[in-house]
Fold this protein.
Amino acid sequence: MPLVLNASDPAVIEAAAQRLAAGSLVGMPTETVYGLAADAGNASAVRRIFEAKGRPSDHPLIVHIPPAEAGDWIAAAAPFAREVPAFAAALMQAFWPGPLTLILPRRAEVAAVAAGGQDSVGLRCPSHPVAQALLVAARAHGVHGVAAPSANRFGRVSPTTAAHVAEEFVDLMDDALLILDGGACPVGIESTIVDCSRGAPVLLRPGMLTPAQIEAACGQPLRERDEAAPRASGTLESHYAPRAKVRLMAPQPLQAALDVLGPDAKHIAVYARSPLKTARGVVLRRMPDDAAQAAQALFAVLRELDATGVKLIWVETPPEGADWDGVRDRLQRAAA
Ligand code: TXA
Ligand code: MG
């Protein structure tokens, strides 16, 4: 079993920083989801992440950096980014620290394994106090950035609590993985990713920041993603998948399907905003009406419904509207 420790103890943060400096893995809470962290500058430590996740080694990881000193985000990014275009600097200024990852041209000599062979690097400064404390403590030990994908096995649902991380990596021993327990993640879905390495901003992965917010902050329209865009495993069609089959349905067909259920009812869970009549045996959870609340709960609910052993999870299609983009995207991938 991995070791899980309460992150409110400064000695625990220091111990985690020392583990990072020694090339070991740390489960790190961030405001979005928990990350599986290693020193971005240590190739063998980063390889351990790919191995533990079962993730192909050409799928790049996000490098997390400590907060800027005196608000100088360009200087904060400089150890990894070869160049920061003006529109990217504006995005840093507007949204860092926070749930936004920027893909930037990478310094050739750094974080090559973390970048999965791309000539770019994904950078993010998280706002979560535990992540920040860990990044600052690790820097004092010579760790300038922490590579961390979501702390789940490849293709599965991202973790939003320390217990989820422990579940994903039960087979890692306590000396191989220390998980910092920082409570439930407040955002709940992964960061918005904007590619800033091709002259104009391109949205690679929707999150809780809306396209309108991003365009307003950088003063440029977002370009559509095209075939040449770098790979992002969070953008694979099937991802964030529980074991049960997820199906998205509008409220009327969902009610109609529930009405004709016979003895199959016990294999089905429902996650919906609309009030529905369900047969006995159907596990029913209510989706919040507010997009931010729905995002915060989403992955924990999918895990919980999956754990009941149902074969199908029927989810009411989220509303239209940009504030639901992130939740809709994750549900579509879970259903693919
Ligand atoms: O909120 C988040 O972003 C969380 C927390 C832990 O920070 N991390 C996360 O990491 O979601 P991961 O690895 O599960 O997803 C990161 C995505 C992947 O789809 C990856 O391919 C993409 O970022 N990415 C990272 N570096 C990239 C690069 N240089 N070029 C293109 N995509 C990149
Ligand atoms: Mg992930």
